[in-house]
Amino acid sequence: MTTTEPLIEVEDVGKTYGSVIALRDVSTVVNPGEVTCVLGDNGAGKSTLIKILAGVHQHDSGTFSFEGRPARFASPREALDAGIATVYQDLAVVPLMSVWRNFFLGSEPRITWGPFAMLDRRRGRTVAREALAEMGIDLRDVEQPVGTLSGGERQCVAIARAVHFGAKVLILDEPTAALGVKQAGVVLRYVAQARDRGLGVVLITHNPHHAYPVGNRFLLLKRGRSLGSYEKSKITLAELTQQMAGGAELEALEHELRAAQT
What we know:
Layout: E1 8-17, E2 20-30, E3 35-39, H1 46-53, E4 61-66, E5 69-70, H2 76-82, E6 84-87, H3 99-104, E7 110-113, E8 116-119, H4 121-134, H5 151-164, E9 169-173, H6 181-196, E10 200-205, H7 208-214, E11 217-222, E12 225-231, H8 237-244, H9 247-261
Parallel strand pairs: 3-10, 3-11, 6-9, 9-10
Antiparallel strand pairs: 1-2, 1-4, 4-5, 7-8, 11-12
């Protein structure tokens, strides 16, 4: 675990939409070579937080620092240029386009002759294949449509793309939500690889069993507020699961139901 300066630090960050409080007084850090897991059910504020980090929205209160400097990104492109890459649940891939074209997606290598330019397909295929192989992703053919890959493989291509293009922070929005146990395990393996390469990873999930094996820090959100931020050494999987499940509320409900039966 590294002791260098955090890549991202948010303190008491808040966001409102008119009279609706989407996020209030949320604090956490993202360190290089670590995974910060953001957990919560639907409506907990996870999406609002990552949209602030990714430059989709700007915070209304609190402080947001990137590499030790105050940050307020005006757009996702500005955040990406700074080194924050976000992989959303829908992946933003073109299903009928080849794997290697999706790997570059707007940054394809080109061959130029004076004022003319054309795609350098050979170099594109080679670079994509090598970059994927470095992440341990062995695809039979990078010319195959990305839509023919499994959900886990598509997530892994998106992760490898962010690593290749020099991301410092990788934000993953529910990467295992629609996957089976085996495919989720594959994705989590590549999350760990990105972490081990020195990236700061933000893993958004509602599943503590996916978060705990790879996470270094856990931020729990509920209705836009923080239930706490814990380092892994300070919380067990059972405690994390109970917090996520609303342990106190469930105990109160159980007591109420038991009383109703007597």
